[in-house]
């Protein structure tokens, strides 16, 4: 139904719309990251997409450009959806990975962009207050990037030692399959270490 | 009730007059007047509410009054997932509690991190604070928690500070399994159990 939106975008922005596709009623446009703010403003004003449903990041480590910013727009009045994507960042993510902030168009983008920055390290130019949202300020790195080790933790306080605790801490403590827990750290990560 | 074994330490009344040690008397008094601080962070909190409400009625065991200041509490319930960001808060709350104090890990996440094996979760609160009783379950049944509370009361009465685990009671899914292991099986297409 809202494929007309994609036609409108293509006729308005031409070569800034890299590709489009529609599937199962979802219409997606991959756009030029340099024109991100301009296209989003157009969607807000001309297409009346007054609701930014979501804005998030995706990491495709095998692709170039590697990161993707995805915005889901919805018009409450016209009842149409459109999904916009912008691909940014080289394979190694050298330097700052930047895209324009849309927080001055939709206020909700403020926190959504902070979360995307937190999880993927994408810098949003013009954002009023780009801090981490979910992780703590001491956290190093961006956990949803595919090169972040999946089980790496960065504790804020020192863990107790095993001598202090008097029991092994690195185990699927204290529950094994015989105690009704079919999942647990050790078994989950290395496939060894049946709980006694 | 499951694996809980009860040890009776007071036996003076059987001989006609009461003789007891002071620590046994204190343990007896403490175990029936637990003032609890619920540190509720996640879905296990719903089960905690069930436990505190009339059907399961934690008040029967003297653990009636929740105190929302750690300085007035002697039992810390850690109910739910503890993230790395919350870890300093939890330790600070533990440090603010008066001695003697006990900690009960409510549910799998508090006990071991559960399936949250990632950048954000503390895999078990015993990495941060000493823990007396672990109650597994996702979330645990209120009966399991009552088992845990009784086990803790026994530990308080005897002065035992070694960590204890509440083992789940016989699960229907494990019936007929020689090892007693829980093995989930798919139903066959006709709907009858294998």
Task: Characterise this structure.
The complex is a heterodimer of chains A (196) and B (194). Chain A is of the alpha/beta class and 196 residues long. Chain A is built from five helices and seven strands. Chain A has a five-stranded mixed beta sheet with strand order 1-2-5-4-3, with helices on one face. In chain A, a hairpin with a 2-residue loop joins β1 and β2. By secondary structure, chain B is α/β, with parallel strands linked by helices. In chain B, 26% of the residues lie in helices and 10% in strands. In chain B, strands 1-2-3-4-5 form a five-stranded parallel beta sheet. In chain B, α2 links the parallel β1 and β2. Chain B starts with 21 loop residues before the first helix and ends in a 29-residue tail after the last strand. At the A-B interface, α5 of A face α3 and α4 of B.
Give, in spatial order, the strands making up the sheet with the most strands of chain A.
Answer: 1-2-5-4-3
Kindly state the mean pLDDT of chain A as a whole number? Answer: 83
Shape of chain A: elongated
Q: What can be said about the biggest beta sheet of chain B? A: 5 strands, parallel
% residues in beta strands of chain B: 5-15%
Structural class by sheet pairing and helices of chain A:
alpha/beta
Low-confidence stretches of chain B: none
What is the string of helix and strand elements of chain B?
Answer: HEHEHEHEHE
N→C terminal distance of chain B = 30 Å
Question: What value does the Rg of chain B take, in angstroms?
Answer: 19 Å
Shape of chain B: globular
Largest sheet of chain A: 5 strands, mixed
Q: Helical content of chain A, roughly? A: 10-25%
Number of helices of chain A: 5
Helix and strand element order of chain A? HEEHEEEEHEHH
Q: What percent of residues of chain A are in strands?
A: 15-25%
How many strands appear in the DSSP assignment of chain A? 7
- Measured as a percent range, the helix fraction of chain B is 25-40%
Number of strands of chain B: 5
- Uncertain residue segments of chain A: 182-196
Major β-sheet strand ordering of chain B: 1-2-3-4-5
